[in-house]
Amino acid sequence: MSAELSLKPRHLLPAKANKRTGMNVSVDGLSLYYDRHTKALDDVSLRIKRQQVTAFIGPSGCGKSTLLRCFNRMNDQIEGCRIEGRIRMDKMDIYHPRVDVSLLRRRVGMVFQKPNPFPMSVYENVAYGLRIGGLRRRRELDEVVERSLRAAALWDEVKDRLNENALALSGGQQQRLVIARTIAVEPDVLLLDEPASSLDPISTLKIEELIYELKSRYTIIIVTHNMQQAARVSDMTAFMYQGRVIEFDTADRLFTNPKEKQTEDYITGRYG
Amino acid sequence: MESRHDSYNQHISAQYNAELEALKNHLLEMGGLVEQQLGDAIDALLRRDSGSAAPIIDKDAVINQMQVDIDEECSRILARRQPAASDLRLVLTIGKLTNDLERVGDEASKLARLAIDLSEDAASPSNLLEVRQLSTDVVDMLHASLNAFARLEVHQAVGVVIADRETDRDYGSGLRSLTALLMEHRDSIPTLLNEIWALRSLERVGDHAANIAEQVIYLVRGVDVRHLSRKELKQQHLDQP
């Protein structure tokens, strides 16, 4: 388990090990309490597969973002927060006391609702995590920066502006830059928390196209308020309500013939 | 999740409720007109009455226009509302039902034309027995399939699908008796040929009623039964009320 997490950054490994396919994630009996009275997640169990996009949908406050934040242990820092149950990525228990959280986060990248590029150049934004990871040689950095920007479908738009401040980019470009920065360090799992909700429809479609392109190499988990977006991008969809997973099925099935009435009411816009 | 009878008036958007409700009502209106056309055409045929047959042929244009209008309504809802789950199945189903209903309308026109032909033909040696029998069955089937749609009743729809297989057999035996009469009554060949055409039209109506019923099963349960055998249908317990 800990051996898995002490791996060097991917780009320092031989080419074969560099081939990414993501990790299977399994959640068993996960409950989360923000304090003694507030149970944000209630006995959640899910099997999330590599090379697939899994979406969490549900009304505000249903626990979807809380669940997403469990995958890179962002809830740990909240005072009084208590977690029961288990999350495993492949075979490692990510809540095991010996897990190094910063190494975990290297393998589990996260993109937030609002693009948050660092106030530095486009190039440095992508190179930042690589430098921290110990990559110093300019040629290698150049190579990974280009590869990441290409993977994030941004290279053509910024290749002549690499030294410009990232804050000068449009919102959609900034969000793709953040995705490039996230995938530069070669994570296994990508967590996307409403990644397109602050973007215009065209930028949204670009992000969705990007998600589709990336899924063969990662495990992608996305939280979205936009049901049509979940229907478009996800392979598997979980509908959550009041901290519980009400229904978890293929997106094809969930959006055409859900089993549960609560799911049906939510996705068709009926009174719950 | 099974579609429910009252489920089209529970959306947060009242406008969306109204659109789905109107779509369903328009389809039922079209179904009602098609049923009436079919009934009138069969009546004219059995009475060999050319006078009442002509207006039926004229009215077919109204049904065609209804098909176009309802299909447009479906496209509009798909584009503007992006329906999901049972709402999506409703819109998809109605898009298909207009097709079957319009074809039944065409068959009604054909039967009306045959009524005009038969009014001029020699007397029928069969006394229109085969046509009479099959027409009772298919009128019932069409009525039951539309009823199943209006009330979202799966077991009634399954009944229609099963009845259609019997209708196909009755059509076969009707055809055999008319062919036998053809050989005996050479002077009645035009009459008997027209009866065979009528029988064929009625058999097609039965097929369309079965298509409608299959779509109703999809609408309510979300399962596609179009290529299931009778035994497989029973195994899915779809015939239980």
Give a written overview of the molecule.
- The complex is a heterodimer of chains A (272) and B (241).
- Chain A is α/β, with parallel strands linked by helices and 272 residues long.
- Chain A has a domain at 21-118 and 188-267: Rossmann fold (3-Layer(aba) Sandwich), CATH 3.40.50.
- Chain A is 35% helix and 22% strand.
- Chain A has helices at residues 2-5, 64-70, 101-107, 122-132, 138-151, 155-158, 171-184, 201-214, 227-233, 251-256, 261-267, and strands at 25-33, 39-48, 53-57, 82-89, 92-93, 108-111, 189-193, 219-223, 236-241, 244-250.
- Chain A has a 6-stranded mixed β-sheet, with helices on both faces. Chain A has a 4-stranded antiparallel β-sheet with strand order 2-1-4-5, covered by helices on one side.
- In chain A, α5 packs across α7 (171-184) and α7 packs parallel to α8.
- The longest helix of chain A has 14 residues, at 138-151.
- The radius of gyration of chain A is 19 Å and the shape is globular.
- Chain A starts with a helix and ends in a 5-residue tail after the last helix.
- The model of chain A is unreliable at 1-17 (pLDDT under 50).
- In chain B, α3 runs antiparallel to α6 (189-221) and α4 (129-151) packs parallel to α6.
- Chain B is built from 7 helices and no strands.
- With 241 residues, chain B is an all-alpha fold.
- The radius of gyration of chain B is 20 Å and the shape is globular.
